[in-house]
Write a structure and sequence with these properties.
Shape: globular
Order of helices and strands: HHEHHEHEHEEHEHEEHEHHHEEHEEH
Strand content: 5-15%
Bound molecules: pyridoxal-5'-phosphate
Number of helices: 14
Structural class: alpha/beta
Distance between the termini: 53 Å
CATH superfamily of the largest domain: Type I PLP-dependent aspartate aminotransferase-like (Major domain)
CATH architecture of the largest domain: 3-Layer(aba) Sandwich
Oligomer: single chain
Length: 394
């Protein structure tokens, strides 16, 4: 039939985010499902976008990215990680991290190549691998236990996922939805396997500045043998609170950058010109902005975590990101979708069921959890907490 979807997208369902948001609107619920702030980022950065529009920066940008933003992304990398990238040959600007990831996979994965992913994952990873004709190989992160307080991968399960068909590993740290920040020894294990099997790494670090006391974000690309095989991706969305602007950048050695650019030029060609200028201004903000951001979000995390604990949920306090995973079994639930529908319609607080972030084989691992976003104004969190408090001692 002429109006059937092409095979490469036919299996993609509508996302659970859409369903939960619809339910939240229907029940006037406080939406702690969606991962974006209900407040804007810095005024000065907004002004930079407005000034750029007024100054006539309204035509197509350079395909690889405006020079000012490529220079700013390179300077940011030098400032925070001591890593040098050449703005001309090693930095590419895309429409958000999502397009950087898509372009990197399109540019580097051949049909039949295997791509290793950690589950649960950001929901675009499997589709972007499938659209390139790649084969996802999923390695689960195991939930915290009394002996192992952090989400963790089993090194043997990870090693078993590598073989001669493996082309790429996608790593998201700090990790959505678990809030895990991969530790140095874990990065060393991942790097050793990538080097051993001659595998590329695609690192999604959009939460790089949302890391809390006791944890430190480290780049996989800093591990021995990884600089030449890693594409590191980040964006303005989470760090600067402008998720709607969709400005991202990919850092990689020239050969890998070429592949990203070859794909990017025929996906979007270029990214919004004035918002690139504003993103460059954002990346140049003083260190105090970045430390203040982490401290501010840590306070929101602690406030919501305490409320979730008080209502009886078992909370996995995140080391990074703006999500809290909470175990729902103490409230008598064993199915995340049922719990999230109930919480939205009966309690008036929306959360996301994490089975959306697993392939079918591993969905049981997420079924007893719910994901709450705390990137919300204090008043929004207070309203949510007031509603959740009605369940205390239930
Ligand atoms: C892990 C992860 N990567 C990428 C993105 C999207 O980034 P962008 O808005 O820059 O495309 C998100 C947004 O939720 C995310 O959680």
């Amino acid at each position: 039939m002429p109006y059937q979807s092409a095979d490469r997208v036919a299996t993609f369902g509508t996302s659970i985010f859409a369903e939960m948001s619809r339910l939240a609107v229907e029940h006037k619920a406080i939406n702690l499902g969606q991962g974006f702030p209900d407040f804007d980022g810095p005024e000065g950065v907004k002004e930079a976008a407005i000034a750029a529009i007024r100054a006539g920066e309204n035509q197509y940008a350079v395909s690889m990215g405006q020079p000012a933003l490529r220079r700013a992304a390179a300077a940011h990398s030098q400032r925070f990680y001591g890593q040098t990238f050449d703005p001309d040959t090693e930095v590419t600007v895309c429409s958000g991290a999502t397009e950087c990831l898509f372009a990197a996979v399109q540019g580097l994965v051949n049909p039949g190549d295997e791509v290793i992913l950690f589950e649960p994952f950001y929901d675009s990873y499997v589709p972007i691998v499938l659209m390139a004709g790649g084969v996802p190989r999923c390695v689960p992160l195991h939930a915290p236990t009394a002996e192992q307080p952090r989400w963790r991968f089993d090194p043997d399960e990870l090693a078993a996922a590598f073989n001669e068909r493996t082309r790429m590993l996608i790593l998201n740290t700090p990790h959505n939805p678990t809030g895990k920040v991969f530790a140095a020894d874990e990065l060393a294990q991942i790097a050793a396997l990538c080097v051993q099997w001659d595998v590329l790494a695609l690192c999604d670090e959009v939460y790089e500045h949302l890391v809390y006391a006791g944890a430190r974000h480290q780049r996989l690309s800093a591990q021995p043998g990884m600089a030449e095989r890693t594409i590191t991706v980040s964006s303005n969305g989470k760090t600067f609170g402008f998720t709607g602007w969709k400005v991202g950048w990919a850092l990689a050695r020239p050969e890998l950058t070429l592949a990203v650019r070859q794909a990017h030029q025929f996906i979007t060609f270029s990214t919004s010109t004035p918002f690139q200028t504003a993103a460059a201004a954002a990346l140049a903000l003083e260190d105090s902005y970045f430390t203040g951001l982490a401290a501010d979000f840590q306070a929101r995390r602690d406030y919501l975590a305490a409320a979730l604990q008080a209502m009886g949920l078992r909370v996995s306090v995140p080391q990074g990101t703006y999500f809290i995973m909470a175990e729902i079994t103490p409230l008598g639930f064993d199915d995340d979708v049922t719990f999230c529908r109930w919480l939205t319609s009966e309690v008036g607080v929306a959360a996301i069921p994490p089975t959306a972030f697993y392939t079918e084989a591993h969905q049981h691992l997420g079924r007893t959890w719910a994901r709450f976003a705390f990137c919300k104004r204090r008043e929004t969190l207070e309203q949510a907490v007031a509603r959740l408090a009605k369940l205390n001692g239930r």
